[in-house]
Design a protein that fits this description.
Strand 5 (180-183), helix 10 and strand 6 (201-203) form a beta-alpha-beta unit. The protein contains 19 helices and nine strands. The protein has helices spanning 2-6, 14-27, 29-32, 38-58, 63-81, 91-98, 132-141, 149-158, 161-175, 186-189, 211-228, 259-266, 276-292, 297-306, 323-337, 342-361, 375-379, 383-400, 426-444; strands at residues 83-88, 106-112, 123-126, 145-147, 180-183, 201-203, 235-239, 365-370, 403-406. The mean pLDDT is 92. The chain is elongated.
Length: 447
């Protein structure tokens, strides 16, 4: 670029300018092999032809042609200085990911559905699920850094579109001064109508989440409201069920990757799980994405992929029990409760106590809420786990004086209020929300 600028100097003779011009043309050979620069080269060819023709005839440059050439060459060069990106994935996903880059910083080299790369790139974005052997082959053959956008995407919203939808609403509620939050599993995530829930209470609940993440999520929420916005957190609805004290998400093999989505917010993990290396990789890839993609890129991706405004999040289907479904679903319930982990129980009991101590010490009104469950779920809930849970809650209630609402066997809920063998449908969620609102008025006073 220093050389090409000399072509505009008055004290440089045209013959010397022409030599510089020829050298810049030689550098274009590098770009002619790159399909993604085809339009830039095609834009330069006509003006190159005019310059060569005029100089051959007159041994002089046209000032306007020279400026046009330099402008177009600089445009190509600045494109070359951008991050060079290659996409690998299905056409549908790549089409969405293409829209997420900040093109003031990015040049898109191309994309591939067959994992074949034809241009060098700084970053190779893996957009869709990929076989590990294929990924290893790409890593061996390419000099570009692999970005596992497929994993960021999966953790961002694909493991639970409802969670991303409610997370966006959570951020909106925080901006508007939310006064409380619900923590817990998908039973309370799907089982409450948060548009009808009074007292400006947001949702922190999510599928597969454990007590450790509940506790740290609420502490994060408290910090966002009370510390960063100088607001007031008044309420916590702490979702509970009869196996939570025996469950640790970080020790569940199928859920280990899901912890990445919480780590991005909380910057803490429970145990150093086997995917720790992937966690570090994910954080590095997130930093790259923050640099070269649009603001809130996962939210934009979610909107384009899921069209949340068109989706009914709370399901309207009604659970119908037949002999076949009863036999199949009873096995699922038994599997949920198959948690013979005494060490996890002891640890979770301590976490729950720390959680409650935090709530009470910060004058947060606390309601431990056990949501409704269908008959099949209650039929196969182990009596010893249920009784042990009650014993722990009773002991902690004497110590911390929280309120408890147990709707697990409430007869107002029938199979018609459930979408499946454990989750409420939209009708059940509305009824549970009405009961919650009425109970909160009773224990905390009417609004």
């Amino acid at each position: 670029m220093e050389q090409i600028d000399k072509m505009l100097y008055d004290n440089i003779e045209d013959a010397q300018k022409y030599q510089i011009f020829l050298k810049t043309m030689q550098s274009l050979n590098h770009f002619e092999k790159k399909h993604s620069y085809k339009s830039f080269i095609e834009d330069l060819i006509p003006v190159i032809g005019k310059i060569i023709s005029n100089y051959s005839q007159n041994q002089k440059f046209s000032e306007s042609e020279l400026q046009e050439y330099i402008h177009k060459y600089q445009r190509l060069y600045h494109e070359y200085l951008k991050y060079q990106i290659w996409l690998i994935g299905t056409p549908k996903v790549c089409r969405i990911v293409r829209t997420l880059f900040d093109y003031t910083k990015v040049h898109l080299c191309g994309e591939s559905t067959d994992n074949h790369i034809t241009e060098d790139a700084d970053y190779i974005y893996i957009c869709s699920e990929i076989d590990e052997e294929v990924l290893k082959k790409i890593e061996d053959e390419s000099t570009g850094k692999i970005v596992r956008y497929d994993i960021l995407r999966d953790c961002g919203y694909q493991f639970s579109a409802e969670t991303r939808y409610l997370d966006i609403k959570l951020r909106q509620k925080i901006e508007n001064g939310a006064q409380g939050a619900v923590t817990g599993l998908s039973y309370v995530q799907r089982g409450i109508n948060y548009d009808k829930l009074q007292r400006n209470i947001a949702c922190l609940a999510a599928p597969s989440i454990d007590l450790y993440l509940d506790y740290h999520n609420f502490k994060w929420f408290y910090d966002e409201i009370s510390v960063k916005k100088n607001g007031s957190v008044k309420y916590c609805i702490l979702g509970m069920d009869f196996y939570r004290l025996w469950y640790d998400m970080s020790l569940s093999r199928k859920n280990q990757l899901r912890i990445l989505s919480f780590y991005n917010r909380l910057k803490c993990i429970h145990h150093l799980f086997p995917a720790a290396e992937l966690l570090l990789k994910s954080e590095e890839d997130s930093n790259i994405c923050e640099e070269i993609m649009v603001k809130n890129y996962i939210d934009v991706d979610f909107e384009l992929s899921c069209h949340p405004s068109l989706i009914q999040w709370q399901r309207t289907t009604k659970y119908m029990t037949t002999k076949e479904t009863y036999a199949k679903d009873s096995e699922k319930v038994k599997k949920v409760f198959n948690k013979p982990y005494p060490i996890t129980f002891k640890e979770n009991t301590n976490i729950l106590e720390r959680y409650l101590k935090f709530l009470i010490s910060h004058n947060i009104r606390t309601l431990i809420y056990i949501p409704p469950f269908p008959k099949i779920f209650n039929d196969f809930t182990p009596k010893d786990m249920k009784q042990t849970t009650y014993s722990v809650l009773t002991e902690l209630q004497h110590k911390f004086h929280f309120d408890l609402l147990d709707l697990s066997t409430d007869t107002r809920f029938t199979d018609e209020h459930f979408a499946d063998w454990s989750h409420l449908n939209v009708f059940g969620a509305d009824l549970a929300t009405d009961i919650l609102n009425e109970h909160m008025d009773k224990i905390w006073g009417s609004l």
